[in-house]
Amino acid sequence: MRDGGAITEQPDRGEPTVEFGRDATRVPAEPARTRSDLPQWRPDTTRQDLPGRRRDGEGSRDDGTSVLGEREGEASRDEGTSVLGEREGEVPRDGETSVLERPRERADRGAGEGPAGGGGRPRRRSRWRWVRRVVYLLLVLIIGTPLFAGFRVWYVARQDDHRRSDAIIVLGAAQYNGKPSAVLEWRLTHALKLYREGVAPHIVTVGGNRPGDNYTEAGTGKAWLNEHGVPNDRIVAVRSGSDTLQSMIDVGKEYKRQGWHTAVIVTDPWHALRSRTMADDNGIKAVTSPTRSGPTVGSRDTQFHYIVRETGGYLWYVFIGRWHGDS
Known about the structure:
Elements: E1 6-8, E2 17-19, E3 33-34, H1 45-48, H2 102-112, H3 120-157, E4 167-170, E5 175-176, E6 179-180, H4 182-196, E7 203-206, H5 217-227, E8 235-238, H6 244-258, E9 262-266, H7 272-281, E10 285-288, H8 300-319
Parallel strand pairs: 4-7, 4-9, 7-8, 9-10
Antiparallel strand pairs: 1-2, 2-3, 5-6
């Protein structure tokens, strides 16, 4: 034993005693103590007071101290240091950082890692975010554009504007050896009604012929109007054009020769938007007064069919046909 101590066994099997002697320093030896008198181990309160995982429902221990080892309402221990081991008001030495600042520094360093200080992961997220935005934009254009165009076809078809104009333009339709088809006859009837109301002093019939035909759509329309009382000098027949675009190009040239500027276009309701747009592109300030009777305005299925068809035709003209060389 250190300091001259010795353990003495008791004869009656009692607890052994520990004796200490100080012969070298002539210090009287202390009375012998039994093992029961030795200091007992007690839990180190400072180690128990270290922060640990809080159990569910535990906010503080029974002795009134919090999990961090502080009494309720106390901000630091008796020796003046905070729970995290720093003295109150003490500024860290040069090169050292506070315990509270270390997590923040690690977060800042993590945010600055990677190219350009932005980190690899945020940049990938940003790139994919732009890819998703482009995809969404394309979907909106692919789906939204036809829907919007179809709405415009339907909306213009419901308009009936027969303001005073230089001429009434009757777009051509099929004819059978000089006799108008049902579609063309309804258009001519509506144009005759507008002429008698004084909407315009002239009527322009439009349309060429197909291979093998002896009559043109424009000539057939002019003959029908003559039979119903319209003077010959009030009718101008543009006997060319196999489709609406070419017909409107030729009508635009005739308007320039006549010195006219405005027109009321007579056609089927679903054809009104496309024909008006083509007329505007050829120097004619046009409005539309579509027919309200005939094969194209029958059942809802027929109307839906023509709306879909004219929506495709209108989009084709806006994106492709408008830039045709002849226009």
